[in-house]
């Protein structure tokens, strides 16, 4: 597992396509589901990283769980306005980073957190250690894109058909020779 605190370095280190969700139209996604623990809330608001789009917001004391519909090997996101405590990172592959997302010095500052793993990740959680009701933003969420299945090339089917046809023709020729 490799941790990143710089988005550019994270994206340069990737050797696969990446999908990015900016939550401009809510928290719904075909690739993942966001749930929360029993303390805190999540929603979309203008509490965001770098522009006027919406971000997922959660209370610092809550648990934010993201479950993917397929295996991913890289995760990265911006977080901001975390000014009281810190968040711990845990994932389904057994990786953890205690105090991974530390409080920012400035109220509206953004920071990046990313991981690249050689073991598949199907879910991860951010667990707050504070007792504060303050919210933080979770935005510009990047992850390895769902692999697209590649169809067998038509030439492979044609080659198999040709081999079968040649075998049938050869066996018919042998049968004719035996009958004559």
Architecture blueprint of SSEs:
Layout: E1 2-4, H1 7-13, E2 18-21, E3 32-36, E4 42-45, E5 55-59, E6 63-80, E7 87-91, E8 96-101, E9 110-128, E10 135-144, H2 154-179
Antiparallel strand pairs: 1-9, 2-10, 3-6, 4-5, 5-10, 6-9, 6-10, 7-8, 7-9
Biggest beta sheet attributes: 10 strands, antiparallel
What is the succession of H and E elements? EHEEEEEEEEEH
Continuous helix count:
2
What is the total domain count?
2
| CATH fold category name of the largest domain | Jelly Rolls
Number of strands: 10
CATH class of the largest domain: Mainly Beta
Q: Helicity range of the residues?
A: 10-25%
Provide an overview of this structure.
It is a single chain. The protein is of the alpha+beta class and 180 residues long. The chain folds into two domains: 2-149, Sandwich (Jelly Rolls); 151-180. Helix content is 18%, strand content 44%. The protein has two helices and ten strands; from the N terminus they run βαβββββββββα. Strands 1, 2, 3, 4, 5, 6, 7, 8, 9 and 10 form a ten-stranded antiparallel beta sheet that branches. A hairpin with a 4-residue loop joins strand 7 (87-91) and strand 8. The protein is rod-shaped, with a radius of gyration of 25 Å. The N and C termini lie far apart (72 Å).
Summarize it.
This is PEP-CTERM sorting domain-containing protein. The protein is of the alpha+beta class and 180 residues long. Helices cover 18% and strands 44% of the residues.
Considering the chains and any ligands shown, give keywords for the structure.
alpha+beta, 2 domains, 180 residues, 10-stranded antiparallel sheet
């Amino acid at each position: 597992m490799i941790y990143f605190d710089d988005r550019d370095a994270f994206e340069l280190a990737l050797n696969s396509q990446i999908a990015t969700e900016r939550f401009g139209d809510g928290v719904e996604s075909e690739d993942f589901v966001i749930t929360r623990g029993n303390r805190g809330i999540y929603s979309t608001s203008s509490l965001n990283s770098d522009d006027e789009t919406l971000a997922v917001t959660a209370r610092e004391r809550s648990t934010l769980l993201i479950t993917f519909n397929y295996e991913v090997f890289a995760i990265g996101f911006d977080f901001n306005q975390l000014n009281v405590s810190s968040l711990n990172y845990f994932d389904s592959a057994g990786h953890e980073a205690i105090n991974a997302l530390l409080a920012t010095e400035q109220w509206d500052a953004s920071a990046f957190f990313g991981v690249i793993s050689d073991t598949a990740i199907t879910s991860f959680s951010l667990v707050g250690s504070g007792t504060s009701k303050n919210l933080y933003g979770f935005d510009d969420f990047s992850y390895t894109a769902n692999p697209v299945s590649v169809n067998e090339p038509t030439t492979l089917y044609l080659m198999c058909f040709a081999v079968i046809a040649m075998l049938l023709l050869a066996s018919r020729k042998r049968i004719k020779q035996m009958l004559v």
